[in-house]
Amino acid sequence: MKDARISLVTLGVADLERSAAFYEALGWERTSAGNESVVFLQGAGLVLSLFGLADLAADAGLAPEPLPRFRGLSLAVNLGDDAAIDRLFEAAVAAGAHPVKPPQRAFWGGYSGYFADPDGHLWELAHNPFFPMDERGHLDLVSPGSTGPEAAV
Amino acid sequence: MKDARISLVTLGVADLERSAAFYEALGWERTSAGNESVVFLQGAGLVLSLFGLADLAADAGLAPEPLPRFRGLSLAVNLGDDAAIDRLFEAAVAAGAHPVKPPQRAFWGGYSGYFADPDGHLWELAHNPFFPMDERGHLDLVSPGSTGPEAAV
């Protein structure tokens, strides 16, 4: 599964500096790799790239169209307990996120909320007590060493 | 930056089995953690979750609307050379992807292409010779140990 990875997620944004400040407030580390038209923020094992919305559409050769609120996918941050979810959700809203669904008990036994970033990109924050994470915070549902209560965070 | 992570990306899909087969063809490992309404596929350090499009909208409390071709973001797989990009792009198209932009030399000095998955989710495949990856294939632009030619793949 060596190709099964997401190295980088590129978000089309209206204002690079506004978005960079938003994600820095959530703990992403701005790197020196960007320039005036792109910002790269380092997270655990992957990079968040901020790029002009029209620039991204043009790069893919697609027409920029008005975007609906629901865009068919969500990016999820899984954390180790409910309190961490509440804390990050509050930080996101304080930094300019739109609170889509406040964190609450989920039908699948965890705790989850959704926010939209300043450009409407949808994020879920979730604590799933059944999902083991490794020491780096990476979600791993298959490695034998990552399962078991001692690996859950 | 401990909260700066993407643990899981949830894609809203029309047909769970069709999408599961598509991503398995690209190397994602289907796990036993799913059920009849959700499929979890393991990648390097994160999980791809397939969920009904309407289910995902409902979970976030958003209205499902017709989705444009360009949805404001892309998920990128970075690989170590141009040939790997060509190979994965061809595998994706063979598995049912829509070829949005065939891999080609990019203005920033790398090699990049875009495809849309069977539900229109936009992926970029890129070889960026300036981006170091660690031994697990994770993109890391800040750790001192990850930079330098010996770490580039």
List the helices and strands and how they pair.
The structure is a homodimer of 153-residue chains.
Chain A lengths: L7 E6 L2 H10 L3 E2 L7 E5 L4 E6 H8 L12 E6 L3 H13 L3 E8 L5 E6 L5 E6 L26
Describe the structure in your own words.
Two copies of one chain form a homodimer. The first copy, chain A, is an alpha/beta fold and 153 residues long. Helices cover 20% and strands 29% of the residues of chain A. The first copy, chain A, is built from three helices and eight strands. In chain A, the strands form two sheets. A four-stranded mixed sheet of chain A has the order 1-4-3-2. In chain A, strands 5-8-7-6 form a four-stranded mixed sheet, covered by helices on one side. In chain A, β6 and β7 form a beta hairpin. The two termini of chain A are 25 Å apart. At the A-B interface, β1, β3, β4, α2 and β5 of A face β1, β3, β4, α2 and β5 of B.
Estimate the helix proportion of chain A, in percent: 10-25%
Placed side by side, the strands forming the largest sheet of chain A appear as: 1-4-3-2
- Terminal Cα span of chain A: 25 Å
Which chains have the largest interface? A-B, 76 and 76 residues
Please tally the helical runs of chain A, counting DSSP H or I stretches of 4 or more residues. 3
Q: What value does the average pLDDT of chain A take? A: 92
Structural class of chain A: alpha/beta
